[in-house]
Structure formats: structure tokens, C-alpha cells
Amino acid sequence: MPRVKRGMTHVKKRRKLLKAVKGYKWGRKNLIKLARTARTKAGAHSYVDRRKKKRTMRSLWQIKINAFVREFGFSYSRFINALKVNKIEIDRKVLADLAENNKETLEAIIAKIK
Prior knowledge:
By secondary structure, the protein is an all-alpha fold. It has five helices and no strands. It has one domain. It has helices at 7-20, 32-69, 76-85, 92-101, 103-113. It is rod-shaped and about 80 Å long.
């Protein structure tokens, strides 16, 4: 069986790795062993944080809605409950956007559920 030299493949693999960790601090940007673990950890953190982002965005929407409906004598939970009782199905993302950019529309919704 002929001998297979892995020169090009080995170099390409390392080059790809170093390109992925460009901009990292200390030895993690240019030492292969450290770069490999750094890339793995970064991938794990980014996976987790993509899910965390959904949680934080929802809580931000809740804060925006609550801040707006307090002016009309509602708390956030009472407002959401009133929406459900009146069968108005608008998700929190849209409500937060209305509270921020289109106040008249949300005021009309509040007037309807009062």
C-alpha cells in the first residue's frame, strides 16, 4: 500500500481553524491546541445563547407592554388577561412594537377591552 502524506489536508484544516478563531484573545487565536478548544466552547455558548435570546426578548417585550399599559390603569398581567377574555389574539412581540411605534392602535385596543 502506498504511503499517503497528509500535508495539504493538515494545513487546510489548521488554516480553517485559525480563520474561525481570528480575533480571539491571547493564545487562542494562534495556538492550534488552544484554538481548537476555544472554537468548541464558542460553538457551545453560541448554541445556548441563541436559545437565551428568545427568553430575553420576551421579557423585554413584557417590560415595554407593562410600561405602556400602566398609563391606562392596567398592570401587565391584568392587560394580558383582559386580552384573552375578549378573545384578542395578538402576541407580545406585536404588542411591544405597537407600544413603541404605534401608540394610537394600542390605545384603541385598550379602549376596546375596558
